[in-house]
Request: fold
Amino acid sequence: MTRAASALPGMFRNRPSRLTRIERYVATRTLGSVAMALGVIAILILLINFVDVSRNVGGKSDATTLEVLWLTLLKSPNVILLLLPFAFLFGVLGAFVGLNRRSELVAMRAAGVSAWRFIFPAAAAAFLIGVVTVLALNPLASWMNAKYEETSTSLLFNIKIVDAKEVWLRQGDGHTQVVVHARSRDPNGDRLRTVQFFVYNIVDNKGLEFSRLIEAREATLRPGAWQLYGAREAGAGEQAVLYDTLSIPSNLNPATAYRKFANPASVPFWNLPMVIGRVEHAGFSATAYRLRFQQLLATPLLFAAMSILGAAFSLRLMRLGGLAVLASSGVALGFVFFFFNQLCGSLGKGDVIPPVLAAWTPPLLALLSAFTLLCYTEDG
Reply:
């Protein structure tokens, strides 16, 4: 009795180390499978984007093959990050199906290891990768997406863009047409600098006739008007007139015009809070930016939920049969959650539902579904 009692502390000391090795093994196999799934998805996206860029940019400009390849590389990271949840779903599903076929899951359960215990490494690794994606990969992908938009515009319109912040806008009504050109803009896009307004009159049977040129040190688009600072106005053959401030009527939608030169996908995660504040301070709607910010915050949870979902659909013992059908159901459910996520995003952009609800509902629903399935299969 004394010998058995003295052996118990040693057993408890050895048990955590065995579980640690099991968790490390499961995490290694899972990450390897996720990397393979990500590689396949990335190759498919690169091929699709290469065809798309070749048709939309290469076919309408004098872009070379190297320029098309460069544009493809710039455009692809944002799409890859969008589909990254599928890499975790397919990767974890493939890893656990492989462990199941080799009876390794049976051995783990026979050793007293709960499914909750060996699923945790996959979910934790997915969550940590989600954090790295938001903090590091998203800013890089946002910069590449902005570079893609700049380079493709330069090639399509044969314009040499000296400054990446250069802006061209156009507004008009039945009597006038105004072309707005800004040499630069601030990082958040709510204030233009070194601005020129080329005003044209619409003349019947003659098209456009130049009327006047307005130059300004700075300009801000407000609802219903442009607010100019340090303006100088000159008509054809007329003396220039200087203004400290000048207001020009505008029928541009401030939110729409703003998005033209500040796409939420091109704003890095770290800059989104500042951009939201600046946009709202300028009187614009920041719904798209708030939605983007909340979606990025929910990314680690979405990755973890997809990992748990993939594992939950691959735990059925091989000898019981039906594993292929169950795994296929997991893939189908993953697609349902992905399109549901896109639907919630569209509803959030349209202010139908709050951005917080639109961003967090799909990952929370996926996580609860995975936990429900695990409780049903493991705990009865």
Observations:
- The CA atoms of residues 48 and 228 lie 44 Å apart.
